[in-house]
Amino acid sequence: MKHLITTLILLIATAVVTVFYFKNLNPPGKRPVEVMQHIPADASLIAEFSNDEGFYEAFSGNQLLTAIAGQTKTTELDALRKHLLNNAALKPYFENQPIYVSIHPSTADRVDFLLTTSFDKSPKGSLIDLLKGIDSVKVQQIKRGDKQVFEIDITGLGRPFYLIESEHHIFRGSFAEELIDKSANYDYKKEKHSFLQLSEQQHNNAMAILYVNYTQLQPLFQQLFISSNPDLFRAFRILPGQAALSLNYKSNALMFNGLTRLDLKQPISYLNLFASQQPVENHLNEIFPATTAYSTTFAVSNPNKFIKDLAAWNEKSGNKQKKQDLFKQIKTETGVNFDKEFNDQLGKEFTVLTTRFQEKIAIIEVNNGQQLFPSLMNISTAVSDNIGQLNYSKVPFYLLGDAFGIFNKPYFTVINNYLVLANTASEIRSYYESYNNQKFLNKTESYNDFDLLLSERSNVAFFINFKNMKQVFKRDLKPGFYDTFQKNDPGFKNYYAASYQLIASDKNFYTNFCMKLAKADSTKTSE
User: What top-level branch of life does the organism fall under (predicted)?
Assistant: First the structure.
């Protein structure tokens, strides 16, 4: 019930937007798949929207898109719209046409966009003649490799825009030479790659669409972060599948929902194990410390099925024998059949979170903490009356899976019916202090406002708090990208938080993605 009022408001707002906006959607022209097949297959993210005034008016006057793209990129995109897409010479061919803005992994120290679109109808004259008729641009044809490319200098911009025309008047353009070269050399007929599509009705009713190519997020993160495999949302980046999500309009938040379809031809990942569960009402977020920077929460409707599926996954991963040997050793040396005792107590939710102080905490719901605690102490070294350290390596990994591999011989405590793990005793004490003093995220107005936008049920939920992420980004991002995070205004730091929820549905995932702007002054922190 807690989301009922918010849901009704969103439905009303969506209906209002629909009246003035969607009447112009579904223009004549090429089907999305015909245009999107020209986008190189390594695209990590693709945003689709219609080049009409309704879309631009809906987002004018707020920072939702500018905060993501940054002021420089926004200026460039605005210039393209003004001098090319909406210029009198080209507007009859580009008006109401879908625009695809894609992000691709790169070796550069900045993220650039590839724009893909098409003419609505055959032009009167050649493209070069149309471009040369625009006073605010200078254009010349150049060779890049064996490809003909239009180099377009737009008044007021510091770098040229490169444009390629393909068959059937399909265009790809970018300010980045690396991207335009990649696009020019991309042969869609050879690659035969396709992006997941919404149904025709969903597509026609969508204000904008976000396409996610999960396996290509890993090389994008490698571009952004110092580590080649950063911890941030690692499980999310190796999910074999794609998503297509439609935008629900809200003035202070980007809200997308749709489907994640798993690729069953690829090896299954850890997250695949949750697709065969039922959605679970989430509660662990109620005891996240106020310092939480990011988290990944897992929820299972049937813990016994999860345990069996995890065992099968371990077997396919070549870990079955190692797991058996570990728990046989524990049983021989301590007399504790720990894997069975743990499995009997496993609850429906477990999470791994990182705080702004780089603390890594696991919280695992158990059925009876008092019963589990003595077994834990019997396979551990006591640090205090309520804190111990496991004597054996990789126990959390074998019991709960890949996401818990960061805890080798963790310290632990049990608080009520929650097993808490960390890599140091001080981190355990820190969380214990937060718990006892109720220093939780959900004690803040900003978090509760954000939580109202989320689904109450999910099976995998990723969360990031941008204010608390500052020190994590400072440590982990490459210097150039951290400088951008710090200096862009508006920028990502103008957002309060983001959440990405996977909700099991017919062996795939219904998917919600939400990013909400912070309230005025709430992003300011002391250094």
Answer: Bacteria
Q: Shortest CA distance to 356 belongs to which of 471, 264, 510, 448? A: 471
Measure the CA–CA gap between 105 and 218, rounded to whole angstroms.
Answer: 9
How far is it, in rounded angstroms, from Cα 297 to Cα 474? Answer: 24
Query: Residues 2-25: what's their mean pLDDT?
Result: 41
Dist CA 267 CA 256 (whole Å): 27
Q: Which residues contact 340 (CB under 8 A, 6 or more apart)?
A: none
Question: Looking at the structure, do residues 236 and 353 belong to the same domain, yes or no?
Answer: no
SS3 467: coil
Q: What pairing do the DSSP bridges indicate for beta strands 292-299 and 346-355?
A: antiparallel
Q: What is the pLDDT of residues 130-149, one digit of tens each?
A: 888 888 889 998 888 778 89
CA dihedral sign of residues 142, 145, 146, 150 = negative
Most confident of 371-375, 474-478, 483-487: 371-375
Q: Is the backbone peptide bond immediately before 490 cis, with ω within 30 degrees of 0?
A: yes
Same domain, 306 and 234: no
| Integer Cα distance of 346 and 305 in angstroms | 12
- Per-residue pLDDT tens over the stretch 24-72: 444 445 678 889 999 999 999 999 998 888 777 777 766 767 777 777 8
β partners of residue 419 = 364, 414
The answer to whether position 363 is within a domain reads yes
pTM confidence score: 0.90
Q: What is the pairing mode between strands 45-50 and 147-154?
A: unpaired
Residue at a domain's end among 394, 424, 440: 440
Residues 120 and 45 in one domain: yes
Q: How much is the pLDDT for 201?
A: 86
Asked if residue 256 is part of any domain, the answer here is no
Q: Where is 517: in which H helix or E strand?
A: strand 508-517
- What HEC string does 222-252 produce? HHHECCCCCCCCHHHHCCCEEEEEEEECCCC
Last residue of a domain, one of 226, 248, 270: 248
Rounded to 5 degrees, what angle do the CA atoms 125, 126, 130 make? 85
Residue type at position 318? G
What is the per-residue DSSP string for 344-400?
HHEEEEEEEEEETT--EEEEEEES-HHHHHHHHHHTEEESSSS-EEESSTTHHHHHH
Domain that holds residue 394: 298-440
- The Cα–Cα gap between 507 and 273 comes to 9
Contacts of 465 (CB under 8 A, 6+ apart): 292, 293, 294, 441, 496, 497
pLDDT value of residue 525 = 42
Residue 27 falls in which region: left (phi positive, over 0), alpha (psi -120 to 50) or beta: beta
What tokens appear for 338 in the block?
Answer: 């720990």
Helices (H), 453-501: 470-476, 479-487
Rounded to an integer, the average pLDDT of 115-139 is 85
